[in-house]
Amino acid sequence: MRAFIIAAFACLAVSAASAGETRTVHGLSLLGELKYPPDFTRFDYVNRDAPKGGTARLSSIGSFDNLNPFIPKGDAASGLTLIYDTLMKRSLDEPGAEYGLLASAAQVADDDSYVTFALRPQARWHDGTPVTVDDVVFSFETLRDKGAPFYRFYYQNVAKVEALDASHVKFTFAVKGNRELPHIMGELAILPKHYWATRDFSATTLEKPLGSGPYEIESADPSHGITYKRVADYWGADLPVNVGQNNFDRITFVNFNDPDVALIGLFSDAYDFRAENGAKNWATAYDGAPPVKTGAIVREMPTLKNPEPMQAFIFNLDREKFKDERVRLAFDYAFDFEWTNKNIFYGQYARTSSFFQNSDLASRGVPQGLELEMLKPYRAQLPAELFTTPYSEPATDGSGTDRDNLRKAKELLSAAGWNFKNGQLVHDKTGEPFTFEFLDVEEHFSKIFLAYTERLKRLGIIASYRSVDQTQFINRVRKFDYDVMMTGWGQSNSPGNEQRDYWSSAAADSPDSRNYARIRNPVVDALVDKVIFATDREHLVAATNALDRVLLWNHYVVPGWYAPTERLAYWNRFSHPEKLPDYDTGFPDIWWWDDAKAQATAQRKAQAK
């Protein structure tokens, strides 16, 4: 393998040397050294001898009307990434690492000013056509120009892409020192230029698209679901990054109208695997279900090492009433998490207190050392308490009758110019009553919203609750048509360019971005750049700590909650490696169909009838 990697770039050695120092690698890591050497044969967490066969069925909420997941139109079907290969493939047992898939190797400038990938000559599309460097160039330019706005932010610092010869493609960056850009290019999903030459990429479609990945679409019914079948002659089946993976003959996503119906579908054997996100369901619905009692459905609670998402009540700062941070903080004091956790969540959650919860990226205590040095230039633009007081969420005794936080919330509202007049909370200058709308999708958070509404009502704030279907929710979010909603942001152990799409001022003015709060803050913009251009892990952690702290102290959201463990429930027909990887449960990629378990489960079902 090492000799092959060197050979893949031998023809470019002279031109590379003239452009500056480079390194040729079989994989890319954001954190430093790679775990797996150039001659590795498989990832440690897979079963090399996992049998092929069987079907894995998952659930999907709502219908779909689009088989192109890369555009900001329509509702895309679940699982579409199964049909596409990327230049490199991530490892699930080390953070921020990826190894060659479509590309056999990469040549990276020491100053991260460019990366060149060597394509594997055996790579093929499902129609037998070779994957070419022209496909790579086409993919990047198409996603940047016609894809969802996320791609424009993600690829903002990519100056150009060019085919150097029949097997090498080079990405040149507009900046130096952005250590994530080579990694981002490795994640690029490659699209077939010859297929899209006669089709409109920007339009929704229900035509089965052409891919090069381990699966292809077998059938797609917008109302009922989508099924993928394993490609029998998949070109990359024996690559080290794929050994022991892609074991199911078919992977199906079954559509359900809402999560409650989907749970019933699990118990009735309409699908096989569920990652449960409902605390009440996990606490009350499973134990009494017949297939759980008989062992036909098993449950696991693995612990992963990923940062927990910031799921939160998110304010739309373009609404005038939420521009004042004292109002936003008052909302935080009005939310009684302790009561909610005890009475609605069955004590299964912890309060989120960071945008990078459960990682070293989360800010703690008061800023010190390198983080403090990064924040000092912005001291005049930041709350004074940020430098002297550890951030913490307001807490109650959980009784539901604790009035201290409501009293503090009332004081904050009054300081912001909202006071009682004629029995309602109104603004001192405009006389406008304080009303707003909670936006929800399919009543996912109805109980939490309604309990929160009652607390706010005691402050004179009148909240209406609006639940819409998934399509309406997506369209309203894309247009920033909401007052307050609950969603969030996932994070990796190596944050980078995606932070622009989450927090930057430019993203706030871009339709379809993920700056859901519409944050426009020059300090946040500057710290996002520090995260992106961090030179090593120490600077990345310090910059992310600083960004986290500034986001928290501006009270852009009312932080929600997280579960310390994953909650998996599945029909006992599968097996997985004894130790799951640290950063992903790996379903369905590294799991496999187990005939013996499937037969035993069939017998249990028959006996239960």
Short descriptors:
alpha+beta; 26 strands; 20% strand; Dipeptide-binding Protein, domain 3; 3 domains; 21 helices; 609 residues; D-Maltodextrin-Binding Protein, domain 2; five-stranded antiparallel β-sheet
Q: Can you summarize this structure?
A:
The chain is α+β, with helices and mostly antiparallel strands and 609 residues long. It folds into three domains: 2-46 and 59-196, D-Maltodextrin-Binding Protein, domain 2; 221-227 and 236-305 and 569-608, Periplasmic binding protein-like II (D-Maltodextrin-Binding Protein, domain 2, 3-Layer(aba) Sandwich), CATH 3.40.190; 310-562, Dipeptide-binding Protein, domain 3 (Roll), CATH 3.10.105.10. The longest helix is centred in the last third of the chain and has 17 residues, at 537-553.
Topology:
Elements: H1 2-8, H2 13-19, E1 22-25, E2 27-29, E3 55-61, E4 88-90, E5 97-100, E6 103-109, E7 114-119, H3 133-146, H4 149-154, E8 158-163, E9 168-173, H5 181-186, H6 193-196, E10 215-221, E11 225-230, E12 250-256, H7 259-267, E13 273-275, H8 279-285, H9 290-293, E14 297-300, E15 310-315, H10 325-334, H11 337-343, E16 350-351, H12 369-375, H13 385-388, H14 404-415, E17 418-421, E18 424-427, E19 435-441, H15 446-457, E20 462-468, H16 470-478, E21 484-489, H17 498-503, H18 505-508, H19 522-532, H20 537-553, E22 557-559, E23 561-562, E24 568-571, E25 574-575, E26 592-593, H21 595-608
Parallel strand pairs: 3-12, 19-20, 19-21
Antiparallel strand pairs: 1-6, 2-5, 4-5, 6-7, 7-9, 8-9, 10-11, 11-12, 13-24, 14-24, 15-21, 15-22, 16-23, 17-18, 25-26
Helix pairs in contact: 10-14, 12-20, 19-20
